[in-house]
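Minutes, methods subgroup
Present: GH (chair), OT, SY

1. OT presented the first of two proteins processed in the latest run. Sequence and structure tokens recorded below as shown on screen.
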Amino acid sequence: MKFYNFKGERVFTPGPVEIPDRIREVLGRQIIHHRTKEFTDAFLETRELFKKILNNSSDNFVFFASSGTGSMEASVQNFFSPGDKVVAVVGGKFGERWAELGKKWGLEVIELRVEWGKSVDPERVEEIVKKENIKGVLVQMSESSTGAYHDVKALGEITKERDTLLVVDAITALGVYNFNPDEWGIDVVVGGSQKAFMLPPGLSMLWFSEKAKERLNDRAYYFSVKSELKKQVEGQTAFTPAISLILGLRESLKILNEVGMENVEKKYERMARGTREALKELGCKIFPENPVISLTAVLPPQGIDADRLRKVMLEMGVRVAGGQGKLKGKIFRISHMGMDLLDMVHVLSAVELALKELGSKVELGKGVGTYLEVISS
């Protein structure tokens, strides 16, 4: 069957995600100058709104004009020194990035390797921390390359009473989960604009605890947390900021706070659960053992190539992500970030049609029906 698409594509990838009209309207406005009271007022308001997302009143956070990787690098540069021993949980593409960044900046990195699709066992982390003088544990909360969840709350229980910083890449978790870094024992949190904040790429966030603040150094230049914090608490930045993205972030944070992060998390949990049950009805398997709610990583039915499936879906105007690294061609990934409940009906319909086109024996409407049953229960 030939699919003809006249309306362009819809994006169901785990970053960038679709941008709501309310945020697009802000991004499309004429630029303002950053060394003005107008920008300062907007920036300070954005900071106050961001605190609510983290259930935290601390000013210990900065925004960088970078992708999320910039704040990952800033975490390594600003809170650790050459020779410091750290544990990097390597269970996917982005866990590998923690290890690479640590080595790049002279840290002694112990790679705790986890099978892709599995979650790290906190007891393995505790064993290393007890034996070695570990200055930091670097981990993803949401390993988006595999869809696996790492239990950062359990890891926080291990590190909070020690001289060990828990550094969490929450790039596909912030804006999805009802975050509470103080309560969970997290010391550094990294976020990015193009995920659940529903913005274009180019803005990252870095929050840190009082414990981490005591470890701040002066190793970085552009990514200096000390320099940026001094300016940002006054409503300015050390270097030229991503002005439009900051204004867009203000609108995004307003949306999230209007709904409330408890309700946001419940929505994503419902959406993820419904999507997974629907995909199982279509003969697919959910790849990770303990999946996150921000996306679903899927093994297609036996004999169906994941990338061929994605290509057929794209002909219908539906773009989903493929596997990365060793998972290329084996899985496909559907983002829930920035989506509403009925958006999943659209992508699941495309999955059903694509599977049928590729010769899989599917009962059309079965997956969609299952999804609607789950989210309505």
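2. SY then presented the second protein from the same run.
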Amino acid sequence: MTRLDNVVAHLAHPALPAPTHRRGSTLPPHRLPHLPGQVAIPEQDRTPGPSALERFNDAPADTARQALLTCLRSLRWAHRLTDHRAYPDLDALLAASDEAAYDLTAADLAEALAGETLPTLPPDTYGVAHTALNAAHAAYEARFGHVFVISLDGRPPAELLDRTLEGIRSRLANDPEEERTVVAEELRRLARHRLTQLLGNFSAPARH
């Protein structure tokens, strides 16, 4: 082979540069067997953290009861739900909530009603509407002796005033026993809705 032939061969198949460093024996290559030549990325820990329901189940009893009282201010109801933990899923907790709400006595209902307020109206509601609502509620409270409660879960804000006024005016025709039954059902529905919201942001104190 002439010198020219050697130059052409060198240009066609250049020699690879010598490695400047070598991997020590304590640093294995971690190469994927099914993808030769590609370095494997260590798999991240994807173990999910505890769910809101799990945190509720594991929370100290006092913490759980205080959280439950923001849903329904009945000590009997809150104690019962706390004592029956742990719940396997939200449906089980809501079913227990319903059962406990159905068992509330007249005194329990009065206790729960003492912690309730009128439904909050949208901030842009005009003043005349507030006057109408206050007048309707005053008539209701004078008849039944407690705040008016109604579950408006899922209603758009624009309907809150009309639904509240409609509810007060229609329920003013009830006798006290009929209204107590309606109130118990509305409190049960409010508790379910608030429980669902509670588990969306419930966090137990950090354990050290």
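Chair's summary of item 2: The radius of gyration is 33 Å.
Next meeting: continue with the remaining queue.
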